[in-house]
Design brief:
mainly beta; 15 strands; 229 residues; 1 helix
Length: 229
């Protein structure tokens, strides 16, 4: 298995202090990722000694992701209360080329990621926080590769190039106590997931089960995290 990847990152940021200890920030990030995965497996004929590629494994997959992001944030204290709000705009373009099976295509999506954070200082060593954020989890290269590979005569695996990124709306509220030698905190969270990426299995033939990935709708998680150091 041979492969390589390259990443180009460019960014520019601007910070402007304002009256009342407010702070305005804006910026732009560019990210270009190229992946080249050339997987080769061979078998040797025990009689002739001829080495030949294993068709159920050998494949060559290329993919490239171009990502543009622009953001603005505004932060200002109001006495013991500090407020930080922002929005990030993202444009992503994905190109893939499964050369072994001649499957190629592209995807393009635009997303808006808002965020809002509050912090209130109870006393000198304690604070309360409340925040909202919109996050995104993109599929990996292996989850996008449509080549059908076989682990044995009855099981196969393939990625899904039509996968959309998984999105999460997250709300968190917390309390934290910070002393000279200890930190104690509690966080209550709720997360709503969209376009959840999950694995599915179906019969490729009456004898072979194919495992792949699909976007499977929505899911919710909630709980409490307790920390102490």
């Amino acid at each position: 298995n041979s492969g390589h990847s390259s990443t180009l990152v460019l960014s520019a940021n601007y910070t402007l202090p304002l009256a009342n200890k407010a702070l305005f920030k804006t910026g732009y990030d560019f990210r270009k990722e190229n992946g080249d995965n050339d997987e080769v497996a061979t078998t040797t004929d025990p009689v002739t000694g001829v080495v030949s590629p294993e068709p159920g494994i050998t494949n060559h997959f290329l993919n490239a992701t171009t990502n543009h992001q622009a953001f603005v944030t505004y932060q200002r204290p109001f006495g013991k209360l500090s407020v930080l709000g922002g929005v990030r705009l993202e444009e992503a373009m994905i190109d893939y080329d499964q050369r072994t099976t001649a499957i190629a295509g592209s995807a393009d999506y635009f997303q808006v990621h808002p965020s809002l954070h509050f912090q209130y200082d109870l006393v000198e060593d304690q604070k309360l926080t409340l925040s909202y954020s919109h996050r995104v989890q993109r599929p990996s290269d292996s989850q996008l590769n449509p080549f059908i590979s076989y682990s044995d005569a009855f099981n196969a695996f393939a990625g899904n190039p039509a996968l959309r990124p998984q999105e999460t709306h997250s709300v968190e509220g917390g309390w934290q106590w910070i002393a000279s030698k200890a930190t104690v905190g509690a966080t209550l969270y709720y997360r709503q997931n969209y376009n959840t990426i999950g694995s599915v299995s179906r019969f490729l033939t009456p004898q072979v089960i194919l495992s792949t990935y699909e976007n499977q709708g929505t899911s919710q998680t909630s709980g409490v995290e307790l920390t102490a150091t």
